[in-house]
Structure formats: structure tokens, C-alpha cells
Design brief:
about 160 residues, alpha/beta, Rossmann fold, 5-stranded parallel sheet, 5 helices
């Protein structure tokens, strides 16, 4: 069964890396916004951005946070994580720093964004529940292949974790 997922990522530095993961084909991902579409949404202010994100998440079972060097603590990434978790969607993180961008460059490994989000119960962070994966290869092709081989299983696991919580 093909799962429908929402991809969350920091657009400017990571859109090229994110497109590689989105094009794996193991899951049905949300349609990417073009630069022009995103600029139009942003002009509508915070409420318009929230409506756009909420619409993109509709009908999705899981949010895949593609973690680049500056993903953690970004306002809209945090919103997407909160919205997903509170909507009972699976949530999983994948480090994408070793994938090459359009200039054939890799980036530094970013912090786990779930470590900055507190659970409603107690003082634990969401990182105590949500799993993140960091491909064990510095070679971009090997990192990509590792993500491709495991993406579906990671999503299934994230959905099961959320259903159990």
C-alpha cells in the first residue's frame, strides 16, 4: 500500500536535496510549491501560510521531516511538526546533509528538530518518541540509496509509533 506523506523541509537550502527524496517514488508525496506559489502564499500572512500547510497535510498519514543544516527551530517546520503530531499523523526525520545540492555540494549535519519540541505531557521532548535517521554514508549516492531502501519502512514505523502513543 502506497502511503501519502507530507514532506517538511527548509526550502532555500534544501529544496534540491528534498526533491531527490520526494522523487524516490516509494511513497506518494505532496505536490511541491513553486517559488511563485510560495511567494503568493507568504503575502497572505501567517493565517494564509497555516491554511496552505493544513491543506497540504490533508489526507496524509505521515510527515517526513527532511533535516538539513538549518532545519531545526524554524517557525514553519515547527508548525508542521506540531500540526502533524497533534493530528495523529506519523512523524519521522531523515538527515539529508550528505545528499548533494544543485551545485554538487553537501552541507553540515543539522540538529534534531524534535529535540526542541516539548511534549504536552511532562518535560520530555518529541525526540524521545519520534525517530530520526542519518544515512551512514558520506557519499551522496550511497546516502540516497540508503534512504531509498528504507523510506517506506521508516514511514510505516512512524505511523505505528503514532498509533501506539
Amino acid at each position: 500500500m502506497t502511503r501519502r506523506v507530507f514532506y517538511s523541509f527548509h526550502y532555500i537550502p534544501d529544496n534540491w536535496r528534498a526533491s531527490q527524496v520526494r522523487n524516490i517514488g516509494a511513497v506518494d508525496g505532496n505536490q511541491a510549491a513553486t517559488d511563485n506559489d510560495w511567494e503568493t502564499v507568504k503575502r497572505g500572512g501567517n493565517a494564509a501560510i497555516e491554511r496552505w500547510i493544513d491543506g497540504q497535510m490533508s489526507g496524509r498519514c505521515c510527515t517526513v521531516v527532511l533535516i538539513g543544516s538549518d532545519t531545526a527551530k524554524r517557525k514553519w517546520i515547527d508548525y508542521e511538526i506540531h500540526k502533524s503530531w497533534n493530528s495523529k499523523k506519523g512523524v519521522v526525520g531523515i538527515h539529508i546533509h550528505n545528499l548533494k545540492d544543485a551545485t554538487q555540494s553537501q552541507s553540515g549535519k543539522g540538529s534534531n528538530p524534535f529535540g526542541y519540541i516539548s511534549m504536552q505531557r511532562g518535560n520530555a521532548s518529541l525526540s524521545s518518541i519520534v525517530k530520526t535517521y542519518d544515512p551512514p554514508y558520506s557519499d551522496s549516492k550511497l546516502a540516497y540509496d540508503y534512504i531509498k531502501q528504507n523510506l517506506s519502512a521508516w514511514i510505516e514505523e512512524a505511523v505505528q509509533i503514532r498509533n501506539a502513543y
